[in-house]
Design goal:
Strand content: 15-25%
Number of strands: 22
Number of helices: 16
Strand order of the largest sheet: 8-7-18-19-20-17-21
Distance between the termini: 24 Å
Largest sheet: 7 strands, mixed
Radius of gyration: 23 Å
Length: 516
């Protein structure tokens, strides 16, 4: 079997590495930082611990499949999965509150009827039926199969079955998520509920295609899960599975160049004279490879952001890179970690979305001509019921997350406004506050290498292909890309899917058709 160099130890890269090792390949992962996980990191101080990346796991079946295919111990024996219930609590601009049960259609509709009145539950239920149809139409090509060569079919076809809307003697079909909300949901609170799923991925609902209806549907259908000890424990489990499968990791080892010869990749050049898979005796690489140590490879898997890839192999073009429309400017995240005195009250939701008081102002600050941190942001409050994250039962660890433009500079006044908003869900927050830590787009950039700390969105159909991502295979034989900046896009579940697709393309070749 072949020698495979994997650049980066993010979740998608490790998912690919474990599968490739099981197939008999010799896999070496080169990670420029001191640890694995990519954006899935942990911050610890004074007995408190926080996830600084994703806090919940959607579609756990992706990682269950990874563990089934790569060893004897299933995922549940390596981490403790807990289904979060309620799935999410919402605090709307008018003060209305609702808690939505996890993966229960009847429970969600009843909760919406009781909280919002009228026929809110029925309207949301009808929307979920249409969202399921969009999911059924797009699931395989967008998540389970390599990107189609005729990807334009996905770009042109809107899988969401919009309800005809009559206005001024004209019949219209919703083409964006905002139009779905305005024409089909017809309630500012249901609009906020729907659009919060787009905002979580840094998507502007005013231009995001109606096919984004699959985002709330996935949460509704597959539930929301927490990993005991935090999502960092999932990264640890995937890393340990790689080690069990004899994947070799080289931390604090940067790849300076991807080396190609006669039109095919032949290895990677490492920084600082570091050794390759076989040690320093690998010696210099082929002509033109530069002066660093050279590690031979039959295949290279790059789990890096596009700008990083361009620096590793100047002129490298992803398959479809000059055809698939460029991604819109990606957003980033501001995260505030709170150490609080006083234990976590019983019965509070794990996750609460505190919606903005100024929807238009928030969208303009996020996606307008003068981007910045919104003055009245939507804040996601995470309050895990997990003794592993606090020094004792008399303290609580809380994480606040806000979508911000990539590259945004964060001032203390911005953090104060985030705390003010969070107090709508967490009364007395400032009186309980021991200390707080802030993680900005610059911190994400440092962990992932993505310019401005940008966080990729998942692939979506329609919208002329603006939310499709380049294929996992490239125009350079032997070079593959994994992760949020390649098919099928961003998100923790999508990372596992990306790793599976890359492994399938290497093991089975171009004829690989995806999972069955």
């Amino acid at each position: 079997m072949g020698r495979i160099a994997v650049i980066g130890a993010g979740m998608s890269a490790m998912a690919a590495a474990a599968r490739l090792a099981v197939a008999g390949h010799r896999v070496v992962v080169y990670e420029r930082t001191e640890t694995y996980g990519g954006a899935v990191r942990r911050f610890e101080r004074d007995g408190f611990a926080f996830d600084t990346g994703p806090g919940l796991l959607p579609v756990p079946a992706v990682y269950r499949d990874l563990f089934v295919k790569t060893g004897k111990r299933p995922l549940e024996e390596c981490v403790e999965l807990i289904q979060v219930d309620p799935s999410t609590a919402h605090v709307f601009a008018d003060g209305t509150r609702v808690s939505l049960p996890n993966a229960s259609r009847a429970g969600v509709l009843t909760a919406l009827d009781e909280a919002l009145g009228g026929d809110a539950g029925a309207r949301w239920g009808d929307f979920l039926v249409r969202a399921r149809e969009a999911w059924d139409r797009s699931r395989r090509p967008l998540l389970e199969e390599p990107l189609w060569p005729n990807w334009a079919v996905l770009a042109e076809r809107e899988p969401y079955p919009s309800v005809p809307h009559k206005k001024l003697l004209r019949t219209r079909l919703a083409g964006t998520l905002a139009e779905v909300a305005a024409w089909e949901l017809r309630d500012a609170r249901l609009t906020a509920l729907l659009e919060s799923h787009a905002l979580a991925y840094g998507l502007d609902p005013r231009v995001t295609p109606a096919s984004a209806a699959v985002l709330p549907y996935m949460e509704h259908a597959f539930g929301t899960w927490y990993v005991r000890g935090g999502i960092r424990e999932l990264a640890r489990a995937v890393y340990e599975r790689c080690v069990e499968r004899k994947v070799e990791f080289r931390f604090s080892t940067a790849v300076e160049r991807i080396v190609e010869e006669d039109g095919r990749v032949v290895g990677v050049e490492l920084s600082g004279g570091g050794s390759g898979p076989s040690g320093p005796e690998d010696g210099p690489g082929p002509a033109g490879s530069g002066g660093g140590a050279f590690a031979e490879a039959d295949f290279v898997v790059a789990g890096v952001a596009p700008g990083v890839l361009g620096g590793l192999l100047p002129g490298a073009v992803l398959r479809g890179g000059d055809e698939v429309p460029p991604q819109p400017g990606a957003s980033s995240r501001l995260t505030v970690l709170l150490a609080l005195r006083g234990g976590r009250p019983s019965g509070v939701a794990h996750r609460t979305v505190v919606h903005t008081l100024d929807r238009d102002g928030e969208l303009d600050r996020l996606f307008g001509e003068r981007p910045g941190v919104p003055a009245a942001p939507t804040v996601v409050v995470s309050r895990p019921d997990d003794p592993a994250l606090v020094p004792d039962a008399e303290h609580e660890a809380v994480t606040l997350t806000v979508t911000v433009p990539s590259g945004a500079r964060v001032a203390e006044a911005d953090v104060d406004r985030v705390l003010d908003t969070a107090e709508r869900a967490l009364p007395g927050l400032r009186d309980r506050l021991l200390w707080h830590e802030v993680r900005t787009p610059a911190d994400i950039a440092g962990a992932t290498g993505a310019a401005g700390g940008a966080v990729p969105a998942p692939a979506l159909a329609a919208a002329d292909g603006r939310l499709l991502h380049p294929s996992n295979s490239t125009r350079i034989p032997g070079l593959f890309v994994a992760g949020g900046w390649a098919h099928p896009g961003g998100g923790l579940a999508h990372a596992g899917m990306s790793g599976a697709l890359v492994a399938g393309l290497i093991v089975e070749g171009p004829e690989f058709q995806g999972s069955q």
